[in-house]
């Protein structure tokens, strides 16, 4: 048995558990920062891709519409040419053939005109969608910038807290009586922050299994006791 007073050992375990929990929390927050940064960066990329896709679709539409305008111009010129030929028609038959050709070409031009108008309407919708995607991207970029700045601001503060707590941990560990320290180190190696548990209502605070009365008495006497179910090192509440 250790020569240290049992009460000291018990309160050290309590302190150690608190430090382990705080360290685990800080490390979780340190890990969370880069995760948040990755998430906002991915969101920026997603929105950039979405905008680029709409712009590409708008361009395809514009190119098709330009091509149709050109076709329409060619078609209209062709009709003008046919009308000129009407005056020079040598026979009724030739005249009728020219009239039929003009009617067919006018039909083609009318379809083209409808398609061009449709494309213009669609193009207006694209302009609105592009403006919306632009706004969304700007907001997402702004949010990403803020997240980057906040994570960068927090990181050194969290690291300083980790350093401080790790020093506190080493101090508390060195205060443990020798036999308790060996058991503690072994359990910490295996279970990390889950190495300790408070005895609550004669149950292990880690796994909720009942602690035999003789175990409780040993803990009261300041002896190092591990839960026989989960292996956590047990201590009594304040
Ligand atoms: Zn347990």
Would you summarize the structure shown here?
The chain is built from 4 helices and 3 strands. The protein is mainly alpha-helical and about 240 residues long. The protein has a domain at about 30-160: Helix Hairpins (Orthogonal Bundle).
The third-level CATH topology of the domain at 31-160 is Helix Hairpins
Give the oligomeric state. single chain
How large a portion of the residues is in β-strands, by DSSP E?
under 5%
Helix and strand pattern: HHHEEHE
From the N-terminal CA to the C-terminal CA, the straight-line distance is 23 Å
Topology:
Blueprint: H1 6-87, H2 92-175, H3 178-191, E1 196-200, E2 203-204, H4 213-220, E3 233-235
Parallel strand pairs: 1-3
Antiparallel strand pairs: 1-2
Bound molecules: zinc ion.
Question: How would you explain this protein's 3D organization?
Answer:
The protein is mostly helical. It has a domain at 31-160: Helix Hairpins, CATH 1.10.287. 79% of the residues lie in helices and 4% in strands. The protein is built from four helices and three strands; from the N terminus they run αααββαβ. It has a three-stranded mixed β-sheet. The chain is rod-shaped and about 125 Å long. The two termini are 23 Å apart. The relative contact order is 0.15. Bound molecules: zinc ion.
Search tags:
3-stranded mixed β-sheet; single chain; Helix Hairpins; 238 residues; disordered N terminus; mainly alpha; binds zinc ion
